[in-house]
Amino acid sequence: MGVEALFEPRSIAVIGASEKPGKIGYAVMKNLVEYGYEGKIYAVNVKGVEIKVGNRVFKSYKSILDVPDEVDMAVIVVPAKFVPQVVEQCGQKGVKVLPIISSGFGELGEEGKKVEEQIVETAHKYGMRILGPNIFGVVYTPKKINATFGPTDVLPGKLALVSQSGALGIALMGWTILEKVGLSALVSIGNKSDLDDADMLDYFENDDNTGAILIYMEGVKDGRKFMETAKRVSMKKPIIVIKAGRSERGAKAAASHTGSLAGSDKIYEAAFKQSGVLRAITIGEAFDWARTLSNLPEPAGENVVILTNGGGIGVMATDAAEEEGLHLYDNLEDLKVFANYMPPFGSYKNPVDLTGMAGAEGYEGAVKAALENPNMHAIAVLYCQTAVLDPRDLADIVIREYNASGRKKPLVVAIVGGIEAKEAIDRLNEEGIPAYPEPERAIKSLAALYRWSNWKNRQKKE
What separation in angstroms does the CA of 180 have from each of 188, 223, 253? Predict the structure, then answer.
């Protein structure tokens, strides 16, 4: 109970709302308004000042108890010393969930931890749940909720992002906008005094708007609960975890940062493998995989086909495929169809080299043929920018053909080139077709999809 109110509140109060731009209490109000939240928004400010956001003016209530209507979610932005009293009032008011942005609790040591435990106890007495404290807020794009002090214009998509680090979470928010990664949700969980990663997995497991979940984690408090939940959810949706604190020194830093138990890395490694969690080492890798896992269907079989116009990137992709254990389809009878879309000196052996002369028609025919052949289960379309074909035109061809095919097979794209290549990659990613500036990244992302799918299939047999 309470978790639903985090993502589907009918009304939101900001306690500690401010009339001053530059203050967190103003930024949260502004983001709620500008992102288009359609429920009721209430400002609570002890001074009772008027708060102007764009062309809207909010009267503020001195206490949550003065708000005339029901409040589902209250975002708390008051200094730590006032938080216990505010939590008590929210309980009396019947609020369901409290994202607490304020910091100055468990991350500061024993004294703060006691206060943290006290507010959780108060919340539970009233049947409320707490997110945080020490967070930057929560975003849920299907309901147009941006209750954070991060960027406003988060792109809607199928990836739910959960971050234990606030600053990194805000930075990733900006990064997803730049890189055209669409999010269903973004949750900052900070100190995890009450709601934790496993609670988020519970919610996203049955959320139709979420296709994959990416977690930045420094440590878990209840390892067994997380692993059991992760194993169950992995059977439905892929989970990618960036687990920081791999080194001994890093683990100590993680412990002091959010007061979490970091624990031995080898234990995490083994537990992730067991529960189907894909562990990414870098942020870049995590998002590369997330693009593929949140947007593409599972492959129906192991046969991968690489289409390219450059021998070099074809070889690089082939090396990556072999390293990742992907199976390149080698039935020449089937592959012969590609001879129709290349000059006589091209090669239809996989990787299929359409040659540097490949233009729009060659790519269109080859992509269509690969999508239509039931023995080709996954496709990587590679392109080195040449004067023959504008990369943006290639992007349009791939979008058109992939949509026409009903998107039944996984398809990834890599385009190597200049500014037009970057525009083409953005265009594809905006359409939910994973595209990358390097062939290896496309192949490794496809391999992550296979790893998850293969784990799932093994579980079903056991």
Answer: 20, 33, 31
